[in-house]
Amino acid sequence: MRYETPETTRDAAALLAAEKGEAYILAGGTDLLVRMKAGLLEPDLLVDIKQVPAMNGIQQTAAGFRIGAAVPAVELGEHRALGRTWPGVVEAAKLIGSDQVQGRCTIAGNLCNASPAADTVPALMAAGAKAVVVGPERRRTVPVEKLPRGPGTMALAKSEVVEAILLPQRPAKSGDAYLRFIPRTEMDIAVVGAAVNLTLERGVVKTARIALGAVAPTAVLVPRAARAIIGTRLDDAALEKMAAACSAACNPIDDKRGTIAYRVKVAGVLARRAACIAYERAGGKR
Amino acid sequence: MRQDTKFTNQNFRVIGSRVNRPDGMDKVTGRARYGADYDAPGQLVGLFLRSPHAHARIVSMDISRAEKLAGVKAIITADDLPDLTNGNREMLDILENSMARGRALYDGHAVAAVAASDVKTARKALKLIKVEYEQLPHVTDVDEAMQPDAPVIHDWIFTQGVNPTPKKPSNVCNRTEMGHGDVDAGFARAAHIIEKSYKTEQTHQGYIEPHACVASMGPDGSGELWVTTQGHFAYRNVCAELLGLDIAKLKVTSSEIGGGFGGKTHVWAEPIALALSRKANRPVKVVMTRDEVFRATGPASSTSIDVKIGVTKKGRIIAASAELRYADGAFPGPWAILGAMTSFACYDLKNVKTVGYDVICNRPKVAAYRAPSAPMAAFAIESTVDLAAAAVGMDAVDFRIKNAAKKGTLSSYGVTYGPIGIGPTLDAAKNHPHMKAKLKKNQGRGMACGFWFNFGGQTCSTINIAADGTVNLSVGTIDVGGSRASLSLIAAEELGIPYEHVKASVADTASLGHNDMTDGSRGTFSSGMATIVAARRAIEVMKERAAAMWDIPVDKVDWKDGHAVAKGKKNSKLAPLSLKEIAENSPNTGGPIAGHNEFVADGAGVSFASHLCDVEVDPETGATRIVRYTVIQDAGKAIHPDYVEGQFQGGAAQGIGWALNEEYIYGEDGRLQNPGFLDYRIPVCSDLPFIDTQILEIPNPDHPYGVRGVGETSIVPPLAAIGNAISNAVGLRMTHVPMSPPRILAALEAGE
Ligand SMILES: Cc1cc2nc3c(=O)[nH]c(=O)nc-3n(C[C@H](O)[C@H](O)[C@H](O)COP(=O)(O)OP(=O)(O)OC[C@H]3O[C@@H](n4cnc5c(N)ncnc54)[C@H](O)[C@@H]3O)c2cc1C
Asked: CATH number for the domain including A250?
C-alpha cells in the first residue's frame, strides 16, 4: 500500500486518477481506518488530504462559509460566527462519535462515506450546502443532496475529490436544528435523524428545508414536509402535517438498529421537535 | 465447620478503612500488564479460522496450500487434537468447543488455527485454508429449539431428569425440579392468581479486555501459559487434561484482568494456543478480536419463562411456580438449574415449584455471567410479584416485606436459611430518602429484590515475612475487583502491622497449591479466611521465635498489636518484641518465617439485595432514561467499603445495560449480526446516573469477620427493578428484555 500527502487538490485528484488498484482519500480516517482494520478494505493507495492548504481552515466570505474538506469537526464547534449562523450544522458535527473522534473526523468525510445514517448530511441538505468537487480536469459545485446515491456510493468519479463544503449566507430571523435518535446518549449511530432549516417573516415561516437521515438508502430532503410549515406560525396542525409528511417520506429497513415501524414513527417525532428548536432559534415564539 | 473460622465479632483496627488499592498506581500509569502485554522471545502469532455458518458439516478441509506458505509454522485442526478425555463428555465438550470436530455448531465456531511469524502471514494462511461445508438446519431460539420438529443438534443428548429417560435424542439436555409443598392445593386457595410469560435475550459480559495469552510448550512436555483468566489453576488443569500433559509441568501465570464477570472462568483459545506452540516448537501469542469475543466465547443464556403466583386476600403468597427455559448454546450447562434454584429464593413460601429446562441451540457455549442465570429469573419473578402486590392493592415494598424469607425459612431450593439480609434490605428500602423523592411527568419508580448463593471452595494462601518486617501475601484467587487491597487489610489486621507493610500478589500455579477460580463471589470470602488462618499460623511461629529470643517457654508468649508480649510477673521486665524485631532476628532463630493455609472454604453466606430505580420514558420514542438508582445490599462485613460499593455499582450498571439495550441479534441465517460494541450496546458513562449504595452488615456466622461474597447479587434485581419502574411510568408491563426503545414504543402503540 502506498501513502501519499499531496499539497494541492489537483495533485490529489491526479494521484487517484493514475492509480490502477483501489485508491482512497484519507481525511480524518475515522471511517476508513476502521474499515481497513476490520479487513473490509485493502487499499493500494491512500491519499491523505490533510497537507492541502485549500482543504484546511474555515473562511467566512460574502457568500457564506467555506469549510475545507480536511477540517476536523472540533474546529466547527470553535468557530463562533459559524455556530451563530448555522447552529444546526454545528450541532450535527458535534454529535459525531466522541471528543476524540471529533478531533479528527471531517464533515466532507461524513458526506463521502455515504452512510444513510451520517449525522451532518441531513443538516447540510437542510442548510442548502454545496460541495466543491475537483477532478484532474475540472471543478464543479454540486448541491449536497445530489451526491449520495445509496449506502456507500456517491455521485463522484473515481478521481474526484471534495475540496470544501459551502454554506450560504442567510437572512436575519433564520434558524436550523438537527436531532437524532440513538438508544444510548453517545457513541452510537443514528436510528433516525431530522434536520430543519427555516427563515421567518414576522413570525411566519417564509422558507424551509427539511431533511431526514437513516430512513432511506440516502439522507433525503422532504419538500412536502417543508411546504406543510411554510406560511404557518408552526401551529400544532402544521407540525402534525409536517410530521406526517416526514413519516410518509421514509423508506427504511428493519435492521439491528431499529424496525421500519419505529423509524417511520420517530422520523415525524424528531422533525417536529427539530422544527420547534429551529423556530425558536430564528426568534419565533410559539 | 472449623472452629477457627467462626464469626467472633472482634473489634477492628484497619478492616473497614478505605485504603488505596495496591494495583491502582500501575493501572492508572499503564505499567500493569494485561493478557495482551506479555511477549516471549521468538513468539508466533496465532489466528483462528471460524465457521461462517450456524450449523454445518465440515465435508473436507484442505490446509496444504496454507502449510506451504513461507512463515507458517503450524496449523491445528481437530485432527491434531485426539480425544484424551476418557469418556468425560463435559471435557470433550470443552475440546470440541475450542475446535470443531467434524461439525461447526455456531457462527464463529473455530475450525482451524494457524501460527505464523507475523499477522499478515497468518491472515494470508487463513485465506488459503479451503473448507467445504454442508449447511445443516439450525435453530437459535430457545422455544423453537424445544419444538418436536426442531433440528436435533446432538444425537447423544437424551433429556436427563425425566423418568424414564427418553429414547429419542432432543435439544433438551436436562429437566430439573425444585420446591416443596403442594402448589396445586395452594393455587386452589388463592384469592388472586397472576400468570405471565417473559423472554430475555442473550447478553455478553462485555469485559473490555479481550481474551489473550502467550503459550509456550517445550519439547520435554513442560510448558508455560501467560493468560488473562479468572482461574489460572482451572485453566492449567483443563489444558493439561485436554492435551495429555502432566498438570505440574504446565505453569500458568495470570495477568492483570480487564474484566471477566464469569466469561474468563472457561478456556476458549488457550488449549489451541498450547497445541500450536507444541506443534511449532515456538511460543504462540493469541489475542482475540472483539468480533471473536462476541461470537466464540461464552455469553449468558437467552431465556423464556412462565410464572404463576397465587396470593391470599391479605397479601400472602400461597403458591408460586415457574417454568424456566434457558438456552445453553451448543453444549449442555447448568444454567436452567441455577435459574430454577434462585427463582423464589427471596420469599418465605409454603408451596413452591420451579421446573428448569436446559436447551441446546446453535449459539456459542454459554458461560457464567455474574450471578449466572439469576437476573433473568428475577426479571420474571419480580415483575410478577409487582403484579401480585397490585392485585391485592398493596405497596410493592410492603408486599415483599410481608412475604420475605427470614432466618429459619425453608428456601425454594431446599436450604434452610440462617441469619439473612432480605428483610433488612427491604426495611432500608422502605426508609430510604429515594422512596420519598418527587417524580416528574413520564417518570416512574420501581423496585426489585435479588439473591445469590455465593461460593466457597478450595483455597490456599501463604504469608512470608521478610527480614525487614514487611510481608508478602501470596494468594491463588485472581484479583478481579480489588481483592488484593482487601486481603492486605486482612493480613495487616491479623499481624498488627500497617496496611502499607503488606504486598499481596497472585501467585502462579507453580508457587501455590490449587485454588478454585474467582467466581461465585468467593475471592475475598475464601482467600480472606485462608489469609486469616495463614497469618495466625505465622503468629504462632513468631511467638516461638520470641520465646527463643527471650529464652522463656512459648506458652508464656502472647501476641498483641503486632508485638510478642511476655506473660507473667517473672517476665515483666521483658519489653515487647515487634514483628520487625522478630523478623530481623529470624536468621538466628530458625530461618524464614511463614504461615500457610490450605482448605475448602465452607459456609459462604447467601446474599440479598433490594434495588430502587426511577426511570423516565419518552412516550414518543420509547427511550428510557435512568433518573435515579439505589442499591441496598447485605455484605456481611465490608472489608474495604470502596470495593464493596464498586461491586454494587458495577452490577447495577451491567444490569441497566441488559435491561435496556444489550442483546445478541441473530439473522434468519443464524449468524450474529452485532458482534461489536457499536451495535451491542453496553451503557456509556452518560447513560448512567450516579448509582447510590447502602451497605448493610448482617454477619455471616461462618466467617471470622462475618464476610459474605458481594460481587454478584447486584446484577440480579436491575432488570426487574427497571421493568417495574417502566410499568409505573407509562402503565405498560414489559415482558421482553431488553426493553429497547422500539419494543417500548411498539407496546405503547399497541396499548393505545
Ligand atoms: C467511534 C466512532 C463513532 C462514530 N460516530 C459517528 C456518529 O455519531 N455520527 C456519524 O455520522 N458518524 C460517526 N462515525 C463515523 C465517522 O466518524 C464519520 O462518518 C466522519 O465524519 C468521517 O470523517 P473522516 O474525515 O474521518 O472520514 P474518512 O474516514 O477519512 O473518510 C471516509 C470516506 O470518505 C472518503 N473521503 C473522505 N474525504 C473525502 C474527500 N474530501 N473527497 C472524497 N472522498 C473523501 C474516504 O475515502 C472514505 O471512503 C463514527 C466513527 C467512529 C470510529
From this structure: 3.30.390.50
